[in-house]
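Thread: Serine aminopeptidase S33 domain-containing protein, structure

OP (GT): Posting the sequence first so everyone is looking at the same thing. Length is 343 residues per the record. Can we get the structure tokens written out before standup tomorrow? I want them in the notebook alongside the other entries.
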Amino acid sequence: MVPRILVVLLVVLLGLAFQAILRPPPQKLCGSPGGPPVTSPRIKLRDGRYLAYREDGVQKDKAKFKIISVHAFDSTKDFPLQVSKELVDELGIYIVGFDRAGYGESDPNPKRDVKSEALDIEELADQLELGHKFYVLGVSMGGYSIWGCLQYIPNRLAGAAMVVPIINYWWPSFPAELSRQAFKRLIVPEQRTLWIAHNMPSLLYLWMTQKWLPSSAAAMRHPEIFSKHDLEVLQKMMAMPLIENKSRQQGIYESTHRDLLVAFGKWEFDPMNITNPFPQNEGSVHIWQGYEDRLVLVELQRYIAQRLPWIQYHEFPEGGHMFMLVDGWTDKIIRALLVGEQL
């Protein structure tokens, strides 16, 4: 009898220990006791969460074009678009960036998904009184928010642009062999991380925090993810003023980990089934891709563009994942989005 009780007790203790390992620590909410301070303007969303934002460009009430910018993985609104003041003044551009849920100074959303990100954007636009139509631009991981806008709030969009947007290898419309071959081209730590995020999401926190094997190459900034052009971009960026990265200040799980879970989990829709939101050419949708990108692979982006011919697809032959950050590329991307200027 005693050994059986000990076995049961051991199993319970092991279960509790394993649960503690799997369960992320509580978030340190901005403005809470012991949490980071609130230093940015924020709106209160319908569900009670706070969303932090940053305004740039011309004054909102004088703007001809209004853009909501969506930041990348492990980033925040404090890394604004590298758009020139000359272009901003010439076209009359107002830009608002925001911290996506769990990042920077925005409250976490344990129910975050592609739809909730799109609805956060819509509510931000409404509370800031941007009008019925506005432009959206998402970079890298911020691209899935733009797919969400195209699916859930297409009637609110004046135009949309995605720069090296992430691709979920499990979207149903991808030919299995194409997706499999592209996935195998990723470096092994990234393959493992994305596979766990998709197939065993409850284990992602444990995987991302263990020390025995390398986890997400993007989160760890593994040197193999950078192309030759990316390294040149990084070299140029070293000469720019440093910006403190507050992306993880409330905790890693509801910021970077949640991003991976949403981006590479099971989506409620297949982006390749989205219909053209601008059938009368009253707006446009763009994808910008670097041919040498090692994080978002060009062959899958090309396939998406073939399936959705209403998307204007632009490919930079020498570009990596970070090409937008230098050489005036942001101006070119914004000109194409707002006034249809072709390169």
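GT: Both are above now. Quick notes for whoever picks this up: The beta strands are 42-44, 50-57, 65-70, 93-98, 134-139, 157-163, 285-290, 311-316. The longest strand covers residues 50-57.
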